[in-house]
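To: structure desk
From: M.T.
Subject: fold request, one chain
Message: Could you run this one when you get a chance? Sequence is below, nothing fancy, just the single chain.
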Amino acid sequence: MSIHSDILTLINDENRPLIVPEKRKEQYISWIMAAGLIVNAAMGAGLLNIAKAYDEAGGIVISSILHAIVVVLVIGAYAILFVCSDRSTSSYEDFVLAKCGKVWQRICSVCIILYMYGLSITFFIIIGDQLDRFLTFVVGVHYCSNWYLDRRFMITVTSILLVFPLCFSKTIKFLQIPSMLGVLAIIYVVIMVPVKYFIEHPTGIIIKKSPDSWTDIFLVLPTMCFSYQAHVNAVPVFVSLKTRADCIYATLASTIVLICSYCLVAVCGYLTFGINVDHDILMSYDPHSIPVLIAVIMVAVKTYTAYPVNLFCGRTAIDSFTTSDNEPSLKRRIIIVCFWFFSTLTGAVFLPNISLAIHYLGALAASFIFIFPGLCLYFHISNNWIYSWQNLFSVFIAIFYVAIGVFVTVLTLVQSLMSDIHSTESSNTKIC
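Reply: Done. Structure tokens follow.
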């Protein structure tokens, strides 16, 4: 009986190769690298602007309370991504498509494109600001009289040399090393602000104890949403991780880093300058200080490395409008990258204002943190509905997130429009 079975086995296996080719192992990134990608995507202009947001909202106490509330809601949005997503959703818009359908996916893609496009312009503006400070220190305040040191020329040249080559990455995994470099660079800024406060310990600083109007407490919301919005970038990062446990580790680690960084810069920066703090906190410091000069260079390095990550997310959002299931061609990728890069570079050259951009981007950021995760959770539960207290509670959470998102988005847009109409404020520090 055993001989007969062995003969059958040989017959059945006669077409099987003697040497079985080794299966190609799927490559994953570590949760530490994933946390670095998330931190690098979230931390940027918001870090420079958050001290001013604390001032506008009425001081440290009320702003810190709102800060804590936003952090809890941000972590909740990440939890929704964990519950609803799977490896078949390689981007945020694919995640919305799988849960909410084609219409909501189109709306989400448009929001992502607008957000990433505006953020890309903001990044180039930040690069220009840091180049201004650096050249003021090295050459002097009259450096702009030389055409080759002009802000517009320097932004264009440095961006083409340092940013443009990194923008053609097929996957986000290629950007993990530049992102870690950006995180290490921004850590210096986070350390410098509190160190200078405790060393110099300025006196006679006027700080607010309460908001001028009760509606001012909401002025901090756009910057908070803008500062913690990494949910669009997080979905492709989560797909690159091996387990859900790694996703949790990456989320917790990145959130802790963001909380500590923003709190240190906001509180110590506001206590250093009070109501005179600039929209870009580095512009409030003495430009001839060596530690400040190093911080300026570090912010520029971080911004150079963060731009390709945001362009990648914008590119995938554009690709989501194609009806073909085939992978986008290299030619298509090159066209999108070139148009995106040079058009945002042009916008940054002629529209150099960071504070106004953050308020409008904060409105779009609120939709990614609250509205779309809430909708995805609602459709996820309704499509697999079983009457239970857990599902009822999940539906309540989903409706709550959508309501909060609509409120914050509309309020932020209205405040930004009113501020643009009535405000004549500009940066406290003019160069050239």
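Reply (cont.): The two ends are 95 Å apart (CA to CA). Let me know if you need anything else for the meeting.
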